[in-house]
Amino acid sequence: MYLITGKQEAYQNFSVKSQAETIISIRWSSDGSSLAKAVEISPLYSTASGNVPRAFAHAPQEESHIKERAMMSDARASKHTSAAASSAPLSISSTNVLPFLDISPDALVIVNPAGTIVMVNRQTEAVFGYARTELLEQQLELLLPQRLRAVHIAHREQYFSSPHTRPMGIGLKLVGRRKDGTEFPVEISLNPLLLDGALHVIGAIRDMTAQRIAEHEHLQQLEQIRLQAELINLAHDAILVRDPVSRVTSWNRGAEELYGWTVQEAQGRITHSLLKTRFPSSYADVDEHLEHEGQWEGELTHTRRDGSSVIVESRQMLVRDEEGQPIAILEINRDITERRHLEQAEQVVHAETVARLAFLQQVLDALPSGVYLVYGPDARLLLANRAAASVWGAEWQADQPMLEFLKSNGIEITDAQGSPFPPSKFATLRAVQGGETVLQQQELIRRPGGSSLPVLVNAVVLPAQRRWSGPLQETEQQLPAREAVALVMHQDVTALKEAEYLKDEFVGIVAHELRTPLAALKGFADMLLVQTARGRGLALAEWQQEALEEIELATTRLVKLTEELLDVTRLQAGRLHLQRTPTNMVPLAQRVVTLLQQTTTRHRLEVRTTQPELLADIDPGRIEQVLTNLIGNAIKYSPQGGPVTLTIWEETAARIVGISVQDRGIGIPRRQHAQMFGRFMRADNAQAWGISGTGLGLYICRELVERHGGLLWFESEEDAGSTFFVTLPLVSARQGDHEVPS
Ligand code: ADP
What we know:
The protein is an alpha+beta fold. The chain is 39% helix and 25% strand. Strands 4, 5, 6, 7, 8 and 9 form a six-stranded mixed beta sheet that branches. Strands 16-15-22-19-18-17 form a six-stranded antiparallel beta sheet, with helices on both faces. The protein has a five-stranded antiparallel beta sheet with strand order 11-10-14-13-12. It is elongated and about 185 Å long. It starts with a strand and ends in a 13-residue tail after the last strand. The model is unreliable at 1-86, 469-477 and 736-742 (pLDDT under 50). Residues 629, 633-634, 637, 663, 665-668, 676, 681-683, 686, 693-698, 722 line the site of adenosine-5'-diphosphate (ADP). Residues 629, 633-634, 637, 663, 665-668, 676, 681-683, 686, 693-698, 722 line the site of adenosine-5'-diphosphate.
């Protein structure tokens, strides 16, 4: 008869004869793996019948009891039991034990001292895949992998020499081998046993595969938690957890660094009083928000341990348990003190800038001229005053590129004479694209309504600004570094133009009216001189001859002056029209040189060229006028005589003909170079030498050359001489087929 019980007292009540003899412990788990319930099996001897087994008894037990009593898995129990077991092994009879072995969830194997299996339970068959008959009479090592067998034999023999109870889970990494050769982790507990009076060992073998996997996963989880904790500590942000009544339960390193309290000091403290939190509205509001929304975000001001304030961007989250009861609040606080201070400083600067710009705007608006600021290569508008809008006749939107503004409003910009003007020549674009400071450029604005406005444009490049914002634009603009900013001013010169027009008209009328009497004067003076020289009429006295020559010279000068004045008025009014025809430049130049050579004996005029023919697309009369003026000047401004060289060459690639006129005369002072093409402009040294002139020739020459699509410029050194350069377009191949007038 056996007693199955979990408590020592229980079998004591049943008069267990010997504790050591009577206990065999088997445990199982209700789910097959845990230690929820257990039984102990003990033979029970009635006091009356002596050694005769009388009854079974069993009782489900708490795991703790098992641990203490039966499983021997803690050290105390292990020692106690092993001591008890080694002193007196369990004694059982083979006759009835098998059914009990079969109820064990573990594989149970009984071996004799020779290591031969004498008994296995059903679980052993299931675990190892052998039929019971295949195992009986086999060596225990059959259940081990080959590589461990030899070692195990030695262990087993050693064990039999001193049998004792060896509980499971004492750290051995044991491996079992199934019939199919697969291996699996096992734990084995050993108990010496007297089977039918002979010493045996009963081994309980448990397949640990599932448990090992669970252990592994558990370890991984622990590692993950450890890493997460590390991560939390690595964060610069203060990360803390507080319970529903705001006591700190977790406080990371970031919190220690930000606030100055260690985790030990902060633990258990009410956060709001520890940190003297200042809420945007109130604590109650934050709390209510958390309660309803489950989270809250906002700015808080805290006081550090050292008394200083810190502004934090706080994110909080309420955590609830399964029943929905709040259990914790997670809080992440980021220090934004510096950012806030910078923002505040920036706001102050911004406010000042806005105020300054508003003032600037008022000043600009008070100006009668149109003024605006543009930036970037496409001249986008930054700021414009009120007058600018009336100059354009349209509202230029902030940030709009200039050409887009002009196009969308049908505004055209031309040169002063109304000729089309490439945008690259607009004063504004020259400033922002080429970094040029353009002063007093004449432009004509043709406005949407059809009216035209002549303006003088000044465009000044300003030192690059990092940031502009203006009252005209609500939004702040960030300018890319090094984008040119230009201040442009439009001066309405309608009145001036009007006056100039009237003056030109007047000059034109006067010149025109002078022409006829002058022609008569010159004609008669010429006639008198020529006819007298031929012996017709009375011979003239010497003084009469001189007077006539003077009259002839003066009328020649006057005719030249009136012609020049008329040309100027024609150019100004855009009434000068070219009669272009393909012309060979070489004989044209030679003809002018030959004519002018006759006017001087002190100068040696020469034409240099390597080409006999260079066809230019020109108005020959006008180009002759230009060359006559340039060679005439070379002679006039070399009062001491000297060589005057005209050189002609071809620039094939550029399809132009180049002409230079060089003299060794008085030259032009460097300081006056820039103004020499202005009307009535004469150099100081020319007047000092007493050389007469009008200062109109160069102006007319440049206008004429440019109207041909060419260029006129000079290089000059005072007292060393001057060289004037002209370029004119060559005739294109098809034009060249025409007959050439020489
Ligand atoms: P003008 O000769 O009638 O004064 P221009 O317009 O032809 O008028 O020339 C303008 C000024 O340029 C001259 O007054 C003179 O000072 C200067 N100039 C022109 N050509 C020369 C030259 N070849 N050498 C020196 N100075 C010159």
